[in-house]
Amino acid sequence: MKSYGPLSLLKIDGMRLIEKQSKIIRSVAPDVEIILVTGFETDKILKKIPYGIRIIENCRYDETNECEDIRLALNATLHNKVVIINYNLIFSESVLKCITNNQSYIIVDSDKQISLNEIGVTSIDSKPTILSYSIESPKWCHITSFVNREFNLLKMLCQNRENSRKLLVEILNEILNQENQFLTIQPPNSKVIFFGDSKEIKK
Questions:
Q1: What string of DSSP letters covers 17-35?
Q2: For 38, 56, 112, 184, which has the most beta carbons within 10 A of its beta carbon?
Q3: Hey, what domains does the chain have and what are their CATH numbers?
Q4: Spatial distance between the Cα atoms of 140 and 39, rounded to a whole number of angstroms
Q5: pLDDT tens digits for 189-202?
Q6: Gene3D superfamilies in the record, alphabetically (predicted)?
Q7: Where does residue 52 rank: exposed (0-12), middle (13-18), buried (19+ CB within 10 A)?
Q8: What is the CB neighbour count within 10 angstroms for residue 55?
């Protein structure tokens, strides 16, 4: 990644990835708070970030993982409902329009838009039970909303400094092992492209 620069600044069809994401988010929820947690080359990102995005720097990015990023973001907001979106995604408005304020969702795709090498989700009656690379379909779209108990569990787990090196998928599986109200949902007519690294965007 360091050879190509921060993924959020890479241009796709003439627009930086973070600009594409924020434009879609604002089109669905104009007044929502957008927080971008950065690590590598934060100064470069600060110079090119769109107006209206709050930047939180993870100074320990090289020794921590997504859980620490989430902890920092949660500490910076007063809201008790969040949608976590991976930084290397392109998605359509329909993906966000399906999310409501009173339900926690794990967004999935069964239309082979997400690579078979990515994380899948097992569900029973739309209730997710586990996320794993071994699951062929549907695939997790790396977009997840947290409200109520799920939000509280997310915050509790991320505040535990022993979890700072964990990925979000690990935290999700810990939440799914407890009492929860998560639902899986595949938005109709949705478009989701997940880039594993910057080289894929360059292709």
A1: HHHHHHHHHHHH-TT--EE
A2: 38
A3: 7-202 (3.90.550.10)
A4: 24
A5: 899 988 764 444 44
A6: Spore Coat Polysaccharide Biosynthesis Protein SpsA, Chain A
A7: exposed
A8: 14
- pTM here is 0.91
In this structure, are residues 20 and 12 in contact, taking their beta carbons and an 8 Å threshold? yes
CA–CA dist 105, 97 (Å, integer): 12
41 Cβ partners below 8 Å, 6+ apart?
5, 6
Rg value, the chain, Cα: 16
The tokens for 137 are: 């379909």
Positive or negative torsion for Cα 110, 184, 188, 15? negative
CA distance 105 to 203: 31
Where is average pLDDT lowest: 7-11, 97-101, 165-169, 177-181?
Answer: 7-11
CB contact at 8 A, 86 and 142: yes
Q: How far apart are CA 8 and CA 59, in angstroms?
A: 17
Q: How far is CA 123 from the centre of its chain?
A: 20
DSSP H stretches of helix in 4-147? 17-28, 42-48, 66-76, 93-97
Residue 63's CB is within 10 A of a number of other CB atoms, namely 10
Rounded to whole angstroms, the Cα distance separating 17 from 9 reads: 6
